[in-house]
Amino acid sequence: MKKKLSFVILLLLFAVKLFSAPIELVSPDKRIKVSVNIKDKIGYAVTFNGDPFLANSYLQLNLDQAKLGANAKLLKKTLSSVNTSSNPIVPLKNSTVVNQYNLLRLDFKGDFSVEFRAYNDGIAYRFITNKKDSIIVNSEDVHINFNDAVKADYLETGGFKTSYEILYRQNELGKVNKDKMSVLPILFNNGKYKALLSEADLYDYPCLFVKAVDDKTVDAIFPKAPLAFGEDGDRSKKILKEADYIAKTAGKRSFPWRFLVITDKDTQLAANQMVYKLSTPNQLQDTKWIKPGQVTWEWWHNAYVYGVDFKSGYNQDTYKYYIDFASKFGIPYIIMDEGWAKTTLNPFEPNPTINLQELIAYGKQKNVKIVLWFTWLAVENNFNIFETLEKMGHCWGQN
After folding, report:
1. What is the number of helices (H) and of strands (E) in the chain?
2. Confidence (pLDDT) at 2
3. Which pLDDT belongs to residue 391?
4. What string of DSSP letters covers 25-80?
5. Are strands 181-189 and 295-297 parallel, antiparallel or unpaired?
6. How many other C-beta atoms lie within 10 A of the C-beta of residue 40?
7. Burial status of residue 43 (CB atoms within 10 A of its CB: 0-12, 13-18, 19 or more)
8. Are strands 112-119 and 194-200 parallel, antiparallel or unpaired?
């Protein structure tokens, strides 16, 4: 009887150990390993080349009705390998992008899942919900803890309203101002390896901002959902009222990917295409109208040109000069940036020194098309401007 009891106890201990053992996912080249622990939180650790890189990191999606990831009950785990390729409509780095990774999908009680991907150049994870009705997201825990103290190259901002036109700062993470935050991307460096933190496939959800916790830890912070707006100049709106949640969204959806490009080669940081590989594929059926190309840009030098027999500026002669220049050197577009319109609020009325119809016709003779700059708010308030531009001919709006 004692032998049977001992055997049952050993069997139970083995089952408990097996159930609580980390679930491992490795990159195709085996250099990156993700170890996922499901306890009171969904935690994970990462090694690179066998060296500990992340430790005690965790993720959690906090809904108004439940905290997805807190004491989660695993129902099913699925490991698979993917190796596909695609051709971007507008190639930025490569005309063909190879998307090779190993995938771990964890399905939990409560109609949600978490997916991890391990690439040769990094890792990514996201939440997936399968709720019947819309959901309210109060907050999201993105807790990233490095194994060692790191330096950070970051874009410091004091608030969520930012133009993103910020100079990068470099500092030890422990010395970063904890009262401020950073937009993405952020580069971390432990002296041996580097990691670039960012996100992908972001829609119907706020952007992720990052706050330093200590010398090796960062947490995410998100703006609250805006409920009411007021006027605030020609390219912004003032938020008058906020919700106490960050998003109200569909119950059946995937959430943004949180990813780290991990490397010991700086060239891989520039060459990575993680955002493209993680984002929803192109949904447009007709893409023939998309024609990328070089462009002249007068804003850089305030429309000043020299060695000419006319007064340069935001006027007819200067823009004809740009069209002539573009035509001569095979540049398909010119941009007419801020200054071409009489005001930034009215996209229908050009500056009195400009005859837009004549410039479009002149550009057509020279095989050069015109891109017009607008503020996003001018477009938001005048969506019919695109019909007007189409009637004008070779002209597009840009903001």
Report:
1. 7, 25
2. 56
3. 85
4. EE-TTSSEEEEEEESSSEEEEEEETTEEEEEEEEEEEEESS-EETTT--EEEEEEE
5. unpaired
6. 11
7. buried
8. unpaired
Dihedral (CA of 222, 111, 279, 56) sign: positive
Q: Which residues pair with 114 in a beta bridge?
A: 106, 127
> Using the 8-state DSSP alphabet, how is residue 191 labeled?
S
* Under 8 Å between Cβ of 335 and 297: yes
Question: Mean pLDDT over all residues of the chain?
Answer: 93
Q: How much is the pLDDT for 70?
A: 98
pLDDT at position 381 is 92
- pLDDT category of residue 145 using cuts at 50, 70 and 90: very high
User: Which parts of 224-294 are beta strand (E)?
Assistant: 226-231, 237-242, 247-249, 252-254, 257-263
DSSP string, 332-378: -EEEE-TTSBS-SS-TT-B-TT--HHHHHHHHHHTT-EEEEE--HHH
Amino acid at 391: K
Max intra-chain CA distance, the chain: 108
